[in-house]
Amino acid sequence: MRYLIRTLKMALNALRRNVRRSALTTLGIIIGVAAVIAMTEIGQGSSAAVQKTIKSMGAGDVASEAELLVSELAANAVLIDLKKAD
Question: Which of 68, 62, 67, 38 is nearest to 50 (CA)?
Answer without folding.
Answer: 62
